[in-house]
Each structure stands twice: as C-alpha cells, then as structure tokens.
Prior knowledge:
This protein has helices spanning 25-36, 44-52, 60-78, 107-123, 127-139, 153-179, 183-196, 201-213, 217-235, 241-252, 257-263, and strands spanning 3-5, 11-13, 19-20, 41-43, 89-93, 96-100. The protein is mainly alpha-helical. It folds into two domains: 3-102, Winged helix-like DNA-binding domain superfamily/Winged helix DNA-binding domain (Arc Repressor Mutant, subunit A, Orthogonal Bundle), CATH 1.10.10.10; 107-263, Tetratricopeptide repeat domain (Serine Threonine Protein Phosphatase 5, Tetratricopeptide repeat), CATH 1.25.40.10. The protein starts with a strand and ends in a 19-residue tail after the last helix.
Amino acid sequence: MLKFQLLGHFQVVTETGEICRVGSPKVTQTLAVLLSRANEFVSSEMLITELWGDSPPRSALNTIQTYIHHARRFLAAADTGAPAAVPPVLSTRSAGYLLRVADEDVDYKLFELHVSRGASALRNAQYEAACDHLRQAMSLWRGSVLSNIATGPLLKSHITHLEDCRVQALEMRIEARCALGLHRDSIPELRTLVHDYPLHEGFHSQLINALHHTGRRAEALEAYQAVRGLLRDELGLEPSALVQRAHERVLSSDGGADWAEACAPRVPDTGGKWPTSTKNRT
C-alpha cells in the first residue's frame, strides 16, 4: 500500500514507512501532476505545458509517453505491501492519462476532507468537532507544498490552491478556539500568523478581538494601528470593514453582544465544496 505525500517534500511512502525514489526529475514531476489531479483526466498537452512551458521539444509527446511508462513501472514495483482498497492504477485514455488512487492514500485529499468537515462543524456551532478536524488537517503539513521538485504552471496553480486552503483552515481553527473561550491561548499563534501573513486582515481582526477579550485593550489598539499603517504603506488602503468593526469594539469596550458577533463563524456555505481562494486582500 502506497501513500502519496505532497504537503511538503514530494514523497511516495510504503506501508512500512520506506520512502521510494520515483526516478528522474521529469518522471517525478509527471507523477506529481497526475497526483495533483488524482482521479481526473490529464491531457498530454497539459503535461507538455507543465514540463516544458511554451518551448516543448519536437519529441515532447513521445517523451511524455516514456515518462508515463516509467511512472507506471514505478507504481507497480513499489506497491508490494498490503492490498489497498483502490490500488493506484495509471491508465491511458484518448490523448491523455488518468491516475486512479484512493483519496485516503493522498495527503492533500485527506487535508481537504478534514477542512471541509471542519468548516461544516464550525457552521453548525460544533466547535470541538471543528477544532478536531482542523487540527487533523494541519497535522498533515510537513512544509511547503512540493518543495523538493521542479514545478510548472499546473503544479504552481495546485500549490496556490492548497496554500489558500491552509490559510482558511488556520483562520477557521482560530474562530473555533475563540468560540470555545480559548482566546488567551490563541494570541501567540495569532501573532505568528499576522507576521507570516501580514496582508491577511482576518488574522489581524482575530488578534485585535482576542487581545480585547482578554483585557489587553492597549495592545488591541496597537495591533489595529499596526495593520492600519501596514495597509496604508503597502497598498494605500484603509482597513477592511472586518478590521474596523474589531477596532470599534475595542473603543466601545463592549465585550457582550459585540463579542458574540466577533466570534460568529464566517464560513461560507460552499454546498459541500471547499473554496479555492482566501479572504486575503492583495
């Protein structure tokens, strides 16, 4: 049984924990593209664009077929453990390929599943369940997505999608912890998040709210002035309505109904589909 890991170094891991070497960099990149669109059709043209951009060699189509051959051989040779519920099967379709693999064997698929369940739990005020799912989602990350392989336009787009989902998951986890009364415990993480994502106003709003709720009113006002100065200097913008409302709550010193509003989940109803972009304003 093979496990495919994209949330960090690209790795293919056996049931015993052995990391398998896929092959040449291009074969590895080809397999990564197929996994990034697991159980979906990937055309030969898409693979050619990923591997060579706008300057493919004349032999690109034949070379892709060779890479697919090596990827198929690798999957067959590496999968020597216990049988999987859905063993990985790389099949050839008209003008393209399809890699069939169980969702539970691909780390980013598991991540998206836990995030989707966490979002649903948060929307339904099931805060402990939301925290649990979002904790499990974040535990799957081992570093920057596909950080050890070359990436073209398809993989770069997939990386952006996953990074956006990660930021949303972090924001939702803070919201769930806030709703459980863990404001003080969330402050150190929020300080790190506003440093790592300085233009993400949601994190700034959450930090202001958490500081205010724990009685650190002066620090909350400092946090507001910091994000206001940053947005003015970097983008020539005033803070969003979300940040402005957090600031107004500090000025009014009303921690009752206003605080309940601040902690209300801001998770959009996606109809079971996870959104592909963050609230970050650039």
